[in-house]
Amino acid sequence: MRALARETHLSPGHLIHPLFLVREDNKKEEISSLPGSFRQSLDHVLRDIEESMKLGIQSFIMFPKIPNERKDKTGTYSYDEKNFYLRAATKIKQEFPECALISDVALDPYSIDGHDGVVRNGRILNDETNDILARMSVAQAAAGFDILGPSDMMDGRVRAMRESLDSQGFTDTSIMSYTAKYASAFYGPFRDALDSAPVEDADIPKDKKTYQMNPANKREALIEAETDAAEGADFLMVKPALNYLDIIHLLKANSDLPIAAYHVSGECAMLIAACQNGWLDYKKAMPETLLSIRRAGTDAIITYFAKDYARMYREEELE
Ligand code: PBG
């Protein structure tokens, strides 16, 4: 009877597995603030994708850790032909043409200031940043990424990207926009993984509050959703996920686009820490958490638990 009345289903096909790519060869390093997730070189990433696909996960989102000597004020390495992140995408799509590979479109991994936008005189320059994001997008589409993920929250970036992509013939490349991305305290382990936190300097804003959303705001997410949809987004994302289930629900009710959620590093780290302490049972708390994100209205979930969930699904350990 319980099965007959069940309302929500979550299968590995809904999940997106995050990958942190480093330039070196033969490297796999656990992220200390996010146990179970790794910075990996391309050879390990390829193995990880193969394993995940066997478990039924088809979608991957990849982030680069850029060496400091490649960082500058305007992120020029992001569209450099020799960029190892772009080359890795080409290789991944050659080996696994059937996977959906999602990129990160943002300046922060490439920026010596550690910001998603160009910084000048202590301010983030929205429109100049959009020009760079558009250029980065074309380079990523050319490298083979299927879906581009603008994670920067500049106004107008979806339109800038869509126009550049279309004009260069990349009409089939999709955009998964970080529509409602909040200036959250829960991105810590991710910034540790990529060494991408805003730099400490008097001339550089110390947080991302001038472009990421205020956690106090809800209606503003509707404005962001409207503009992203009008500019050509193919997916709308809410980030983080757990503290923002109301926002997921709101966007689902107000848009016919597929809704994605990013179950971010800090949210996963909290649960891992409690389980490591013996305070929670991972095999129960983890699936319940993912189910809640799905129940709120998501079609696609980015989570560091994707492989563990898929393994439990395969072993029929889920209720
Ligand atoms: C930045 C970006 C961030 C995350 C994804 N893309 C961090 C930030 O905005 O500072 C966070 C993801 C996570 O915490 O898991 N472009």
How would you characterize the overall build of this protein?
By secondary structure, the protein is α/β, with parallel strands linked by helices. The radius of gyration is 19 Å and the shape is globular. The longest helix is centred in the middle third of the chain and has 18 residues. The model has no long low-confidence stretch (mean pLDDT 96). It has ten helices and twelve strands. Helix 3 packs across helix 4. The protein has one domain: Aldolase class I (TIM Barrel). The strands form two sheets. Strands 1, 2, 3, 4, 5, 8, 9, 10, 11 and 12 form a ten-stranded mixed sheet that branches. Strand 10, helix 7 and strand 11 form a beta-alpha-beta unit. 38% of the residues lie in helices and 16% in strands. The two termini are 13 Å apart. It binds ligand PBG.
Number of domains: 1
Percentage of residues assigned to helices: 25-40%
> Which H/E pattern describes the elements?
EEEHEHEEEHEHEHHEHEHHEH
Radius of gyration, CA atoms, in whole angstroms: 19 Å
Protein structure class: alpha/beta
State the fourth-level CATH superfamily.
Answer: Aldolase class I
Largest sheet: 10 strands, mixed
In the CATH classification, which architecture applies? Answer: Alpha-Beta Barrel
The 3D shape can be described as globular
Small molecules bound: ligand PBG
What percent strand?
15-25%
Count of DSSP-assigned helices: 10
Q: Determine and state the CATH class.
A: Alpha Beta
**Count of strand segments:** 12
The CATH topology is what? TIM Barrel
- Return residue spans where pLDDT drops below 50 for at least 5 consecutive residues: none
Amino- and carboxy-terminal Cα gap: 13 Å
